[in-house]
Amino acid sequence: MDDVWTESQILWEQFMVYLKVGAYGSRILLTTRSRKVVEVEGSAYQFDLPFLSPNDSWKLFQQSVVMPPKGLGIEFVDVGKDIVKKCGGIPLAIKALAGVLRGKELIGEWQAMRDSNLLHFVGEESGVPVSACLRLSYFHLPSHLKQCFTICSLFPKGHKIDKEQLIDLWIAHDMITIEPGVDYLDYIGHKCFNSIMKMSFLQDANEYHGRVTCGMHDLVHDLARSILDDEISLDVPKDPTCFTKSYRYFSLTEQEQKSTAQKSF
Asked: What pLDDT digit, counting tens, does each position of 157-212 carry?
């Protein structure tokens, strides 16, 4: 509950800043995945977004998986609908699993996805199925893309990630795999970036003055951070003698969403 109060306090301070510059009659729309935050804030009006219907879920899956010209065979449709059902009507989960199945033409690959143990404990709480679906999607990534994805958690939540800076980071950490006949690392880096975008692990790509930036959903960021676990540190310990863990990555943020620096040990 302390974490909820802390988050609530931060939100309230941000609200007050915006209200000071807002016009008369301005309103604030608060979005959150935690009902406790809503209860703490005492919101005047609450609106619970419904999950996608089975029909809308299937449509989103078809759009995300990229249908072949002749459409999906009946076997693929049956298995695909079973997979979509396990996503609980959550768009992020549907898009992530569809991204995994993109380009997979063997029914056995689809069946393996449907029968994965990670999808057996889908419960009523929305955080359970989406976390399971995202983790399953991660397990199906090629090894080099797994590294490229998890290092994105060096950037703080909500940070606009610069595409070129991210690719440079991958190259600096030797995460780009050379392909036969291709020795242009930037080109391969762009392919890796596009692959992760198709998985919905990166999203909201925008181009401004020739620079492309993207974001990472909070739940996806949590997944990447949990995978790195004790390989990454966000803070310098006050007492180094008590610092027993050995980190590969170190992230410093002087001002949230404004300045970020990374260092590899």
From this structure: 888 999 999 999 999 988 887 777 777 888 899 999 999 998 889 999 999 888 99
Instruction: List Cβ<8 Å contacts ≥24 apart for 194-198.
Output: 195/145, 196/145, 196/148, 196/149, 198/99, 198/102
Distance, C-alpha 156 to centroid of its chain: 12
Please enumerate in sequence order all residues whose Cβ is within 8 A of that of 211, keeping only pairs 6 or more positions apart, or say none: 162, 163, 164
Please name which of 259, 253, 255 lies closest in space to residue 236, comparing C-alpha atoms: 253
In order, the DSSP letters of 62-119 are: HHHH---TT---HHHHHHHHHHHHHTTT-HHHHHHHHHHHTT---HHHHHHHHT-GGG
Q: Are 100 and 200 in contact (CB under 8 A)?
A: no
CB neighbour class for 168 (10 Å; exposed up to 12, middle 13-18, buried from 19) = middle
Give the Å distances, CA to CA, from 111 to 58, 77, 90, 114, 197. 17, 11, 20, 5, 24
Number of compact structural domains in the chain: 3
19 is in which domain, residue-wise?
2-41
Q: Is 186 domain-assigned? A: yes
Do 225 and 195 lie in a common domain?
Answer: yes
What DSSP state is assigned to residue 182? Answer: B
